[in-house]
Write a structure and sequence with these properties.
This protein has about 600 residues and is of the alpha+beta class. It folds into four domains: about 190 residues, no CATH class; about 120 residues, Glucose Oxidase, domain 1 (3-Layer(bba) Sandwich); about 190 residues, ATP-grasp fold, A domain (Dna Ligase, domain 1, 2-Layer Sandwich), CATH 3.30.1490.20; about 60 residues, no CATH class. It is about 30% helix and about 20% strand. The protein is built from 20 helices and 22 strands. The strands form four sheets. A seven-stranded mixed sheet has the order 7-11-10-9-8-12-13. A six-stranded mixed sheet has the order 1-3-2-4-5-6, with helices on both faces. A five-stranded antiparallel sheet has the order 14-15-18-16-17. β4 and β5 form a beta hairpin. α15 runs antiparallel to α16 and α16 runs antiparallel to α18. The radius of gyration is 29 Å and the shape is elongated. The two termini are about 50 Å apart. About 40% of the residues are buried.
């Protein structure tokens, strides 16, 4: 790490004191580790960094420290050199007679969590899309309103953009103090910042493909394939395997489309008005390389050799052979299952069974769920001669004796035959008896796909299959229809194409069903993962939630869900607000 000499630090301080307001603090050719006053954009540009773990793109971050034990001196830090405040404090501020900087853990607890802290810590962020300049504290910082106001006034008085500076609260506790704070300093809420963003990187990787433009309403009639990168006018509910996605609407990071992209290892981004973007339109129909990076994206021509190498790298080197066991021939309560039973009832049902076995915790689960095993699906195929239809179809595909249009037509016919074929009466009786023994006949139920080609190490299979709803009060036929809809979805075009690309052996695919009550009149719904999507070095749970029954994974229009990072690395858990629910804001208005 570079260390500025004491003489140079003095030179910069003198320059700051003697300069006119329009002059810069830092002399030409000097690259400092810190300065006390920022007088121009060049000063600022020498110190900022474009962080790879920034929650918002098109941003520049500048760390600052106020030393309350040394005449409240402020230090604007070269954030490229000192990404964390602690590193700078260790290098420059561990002075005799003052509270020691200490270990990293001691520094964090004292200066983020205690009122008697030595340092006030924060950052100035420039949002270039909106030309906003904000002062922000850490999500886990317990600074009082008075401390935040003092810090804002100190920073604003020492930076050239002080009259433009706004305070943005990033945690719930900081938001609660806004009434007090906003009467003294200008503020901006997180949702205003989010709505002003133009670029959203979601899966930050590189992809190769032929650039295609589609309206979401056209996807069924004009499908895209594994070697395409597609630009969409909206966020789709679902999409076939593609080499990359660009949407004109912003997505939620835990949307179905983004989870598919992460599982597939393909780039995914949002760019406002992408569908009419001149740069992207200039590559329409061309083979391109798309790079989705934290702060920006790039698109450029690609060679066929590069693209073929990329496509091949996405595929397993050998065939994936799904395992199945047809020996279990009865309806099974979920609490009887464990992960090993995925070869009998599918991954979804087995995973829920595993959740019931986690010791020392009470994870809320649907009431009295049960599984319909693979054996019921297998009997349905064999009783109606459909196992032979599947074998012939797979053989023709493997021999290359079928066109894309023929594949589409034959898969449609297969699904229709699975749905129309009569369900064995004793199997239907087993299902309805299981329902009656657990629920009122008027209870709405969900029949959810659960296959042996999901959650594999080499293949996720997320979102490829269909779930259905029914209640027994509407008649046994409705239950039979729901079961057959789920079974038939094993052979939808998207699932087949994606399995084929990943070399999954189609003939060994089996479908089970997880059955549980449907949730009615939800107060809220959400999705969570135990991973910080933005910064791996700051452990957190990432939570997306929405009011009522409005979808989180596939929101429509301007229904922006709440997005939170629940940090687990602080002394006490804290959470950072990325966006608030747009629907909750409308209700409060």
């Amino acid at each position: 790490m570079r260390v500025v000499s004491i003489a140079l630090a003095i030179l910069m301080s003198v320059a700051a004191c003697s300069s006119s307001e329009k002059e810069c603090t830092v002399p030409e050719g000097v690259n400092p580790d810190w300065i006390k006053v920022i007088r121009c954009d060049r000063d600022y540009s020498l110190l900022v960094t474009e962080r790879d773990d920034a929650i918002f793109s098109h941003t520049q971050t500048l760390n600052w420290i106020i030393d309350t034990e040394d005449e409240n001196r402020i230090y604007f830090i070269n954030t490229n050199e000192f990404l964390l405040h602690y590193f700078f404090a260790t290098a420059y501020l561990d002075k005799p007679g003052l509270t020691p900087v200490g270990t990293h853990g001691e520094f964090n607890i004292l200066n983020y969590r205690r009122e008697n802290r030595r340092f006030i810590l924060g950052k100035v962020i420039h949002y270039s899309d909106q030309e906003l300049w904000t002062l922000e504290m850490s999500a886990g910082d317990t600074a009082s309103a008075e401390m935040i106001i003092y810090a804002y006034n100190t920073v604003a008085a020492s930076i050239h953009r002080g009259d433009e500076l706004l305070y943005r609260p990033v945690s719930n506790d900081q938001e609660r103090m806004l009434d007090t704070i906003s009467s003294s300093i200008p503020v901006i809420r997180t949702e205003e910042v989010f709505l002003g963003q133009s670029y959203q990187p979601l899966n930050k990787v590189v992809g190769y493909g032929r650039l295609q433009f589609r309206r979401v309403t056209e996807l069924a009639g004009l499908p895209v394939g594994p070697t395409d990168i597609v630009v969409l006018d909206r966020v789709p509910n679902d999409i076939a395997l593609v080499s990359g996605i660009v949407t004109s609407e912003f997505q939620t990071p835990l949307s179905h489309v983004n989870l598919l992209s992460k599982n597939r290892g393909t780039p995914n981004m949002a760019l406002r008005n992408a569908f009419d973007d001149d740069e992207l339109r200039g590559f329409e129909g061309e083979l391109v390389k798309l790079t989705v990076a934290p702060q920006s994206f790039s698109i450029e021509p690609a060679s066929l050799a590069e693209a073929q190498s990329y496509w091949e790298s996405m595929r397993p080197s050998e065939a994936l052979v799904p395992r199945f066991d047809l020996s279990v021939d009865r309806i099974i309560a979920i609490d009887e299952l464990e992960l090993a039973d995925s070869i009998r009832v599918g991954a979804k049902a087995a995973n829920m069974g595993e959740m019931t076995r986690i010791p020392g915790t009470a994870i809320p689960l649907p009431e009295s769920p049960f599984a319909i095993p693979f054996a019921f699906y297998q009997r349905h195929l064999e009783d109606n001669g459909l196992d032979l239809v599947i074998s012939d179809l797979v053989a023709d595909v493997e021999a290359g004796q079928i066109t894309s249009e023929q594949l589409r037509e034959r898969l449609f016919a297969l699904r229709w035959d699975i749905f129309r074929a009569p369900l064995r009466q004793d199997d239907l009786l087993s299902v309805t008896s299981a329902i009656l023994s657990r629920f009122e006949s008027t209870r709405a139920l969900r029949f959810r796909s659960s296959t042996n080609v999901e959650d594999l190490a080499e293949f996720s299979g997320a979102g490829l299959y269909t779930s259905a709803g029914a209640k027994l009060a509407d008649g046994e036929a409705h239950i039979a229809d729901a079961v057959r809809v789920v079974w038939a979805s094993a052979w939808n075009l998207q699932a087949f194409v994606e399995r084929d690309f990943y070399r999954v052996e189609h003939g060994k695919v089996r479908m089970g069903i997880l059955v549980h009550p449907a949730f009615q009149s939800e107060l809220a719904n959400g999705v969570a993962i135990t991973n910080n999507e933005f910064a791996q070095n700051r452990p957190a749970f990432f939570i997306n939630s929405q009011v009522g029954e409005v979808s989180v994974t596939n929101p429509t229009g301007q229904a922006i869900p709440e997005q939170l990072l629940y940090y687990t690395w602080y002394e006490e858990p804290e959470y950072e607000v990325i966006t608030r629910s747009s629907l909750l804001r409308e209700q409060s208005d």
